[in-house]
Amino acid sequence: MGLWWVTSNVWQVGKDRSSVPPASPAAPVVPPPTPGGRRAAAILASVPHIYTKTGDDGSTGRLFGGRISKADLVAEACGTIDEAVAAFGLARALCQDGGLSAELLGLQRELFVAGADLSANPAERDRLEPGVSLVTEQMAERLEARIDALVLDHPLPNAFVVPGAAPDSAALDVARSVIRRAERRAVAMRDGGDVVNRDVLLYLNRLSDLVFVLARIAAGEAEPLSRPKRT
C-alpha cells in the first residue's frame, strides 16, 4: 500500500479531499454465472482496490505528489510511524481502562498527522493543515503538560524496570520503543537532507516519554527492577 495509509487518513480527517491520489482503475471483472455473483462483482468493481500495482517497481507515492524508493529514508520513517500506530492498537485492545483506551486512540490519530507531515512532498508543504497533516508545537506542549500531570500523581521509579508486568503495559513498552525508532528515522531524514518539521521531532520525543509513563502506571507496583534487590 506504500504511503497510502497516510493520504487516506488525511482524506478522512482533513478538508482537502483533492490531496488524495485518485483510486486506481478497477480491474476487469469476468461476470459470474449466478445473479448474486454478478451483484457482488458489480460492488467490487465500484470500490478502490487495496492493491494499486503502482509500487510494483519498488517506489511509493508521497503526499501531494511525487514518488520515492520504498528504501528511501522517508518511506522508512513513515513505515515506522505505521508500526507505532499498530503497536498502540495492540495496547488499546489489551487495556481494561476506558480512559486509557480513549487516550491511546487519540495518540494513534495524532501519529497519522506526524506520518502525513513526514511524507509530504517538500514543494507542497504550504498545503499542510495544522493538526491534520502538520504537527504543531502545541501538540508537543500538550504531551509535556500531560506527562507533568501524570508524574505528579504517579512518581516514577528511581531505577530501570523490566517490562512485562501486565499485557497492556508490555504492549505500551513495545509502542514506546517503536516511537523511539520513528524519531531516529526522522532524524536520519533530516541529516540526509530531507525537509523535516522540527515539531515532528519534538512530538515523537515527548510521545515516547508519555508512553513510558503510561506503561509504568498500567504496570502498577508489580514491575521488577533491572537488578534484583540485595537481601
Provide a compact summary of the structure.
With 231 residues, the chain is mainly alpha-helical. Helices cover 56% and strands 3% of the residues.
Structure description:
- The chain has 231 residues and is mainly α.
- It has helices spanning 4-13, 35-46, 73-94, 98-119, 137-153, 167-191, 198-219, and strands spanning 59-61, 67-69.
- The longest helix has 25 residues, at 167-191.
- A two-stranded antiparallel sheet has the order 1-2.
- It has 7 helices and 2 strands.
- Helix 3 (73-94) packs antiparallel against helix 4 (98-119), helix 3 (73-94) runs antiparallel to helix 6 (167-191) and helix 6 packs antiparallel against helix 7 (198-219).
- The chain has one domain (58-219): Cobalamin adenosyltransferase-like (Hypothetical Protein Ta1238, Chain: A), CATH 1.20.1200.10.
- It is globular and about 70 Å long.
- A hairpin with a 5-residue loop joins strand 1 (59-61) and strand 2.
- The relative contact order is 0.14.
What is the CATH architecture term?
Up-down Bundle
Could you give the order of the helices and strands? HHEEHHHHH
Mean pLDDT, all residues: 85
- How would you sum up the global shape? globular
Number of self-contained structural domains: 1
Helix content: 55-70%
Instruction: Please state the structural category.
Output: mainly alpha
The major beta sheet can be summarized as: 2 strands, antiparallel
CATH class (first level) name: Mainly Alpha
| CATH homologous superfamily label | Cobalamin adenosyltransferase-like
Q: Strand sequence of the main sheet, in spatial order?
A: 1-2
So how many helices?
7
Radius of gyration over all CA atoms, rounded = 21 Å
Instruction: Provide the CATH topology.
Output: Hypothetical Protein Ta1238, Chain: A
* Share of β-strand residues: under 5%
* Beginning-to-end CA distance, first to last residue: 55 Å
